[in-house]
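Hi R.,

Quick one: here's the DUF1275 domain-containing protein sequence you asked about.
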Amino acid sequence: MDKLINYHKPAEARLFALLLTFSGGFIDAFTYIKCGRTMAAAQTGNIIFLSAALANHNFLGVVDRLGSLIAFIIGLAMVSILHARLRTDYWRVVCLLPILLVGAIIGFLPDTFPDYLMVPAISFGLAMQSAAFSKIEGLGYNSVFTSGSVKKAAVAWSEYYFHHDYSQRKAALSYLTIVICFTLGAIISAQLLPFFRMKTIWIATFLILVTDSSYYLTKKKKANKNNRQKKES
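And here's the predicted structure, written out as tokens:
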């Protein structure tokens, strides 16, 4: 268990990174399939779809993608604001609350709920998740899209195999695991969506809730341990 939860740096714990990445792939697939090929977090794809919508004079397509892009940027900025303003070590717990709230609400909504309202709300929450938890055991990663992780995994494995740089083995395994978790999340989301419809998102929401709660408890345990050591000294 110690290999999965880093008690010295809980925000970089492997377990939390894998759960959040699985959830990120799960929700991205959910919005892509359910919301007319609009992605909540993969803004590279949204920019391409936005360009295509502009070229085809598709006003609704432009609104959907532009809304997601703007909301994602605002979500990233919000994390910086919270980190600076909140006088607590638990600011990351707060940063996951928006996606938890949005995910919980969406499960109750009808299938006909407008995409241009739903996707930006998800994008905002996922952006905050992405910025608040951005490292796995000291390595930078992203839990809501996977292009960067694919690149880093390929580079690390190449350095390990072809240049015998054994220091890259840990990075190669970490990024490969991240990519696999994201992919599994997307696949499972796509398979469950026809059966559970809007309620499908509750699975990812539950996993994020587990992550947020576990992170809080881990931080609390670490704080209590430090306080005891101070008293003893």
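The first strand starts at residue 135 and ends at 136.

Cheers,
M.
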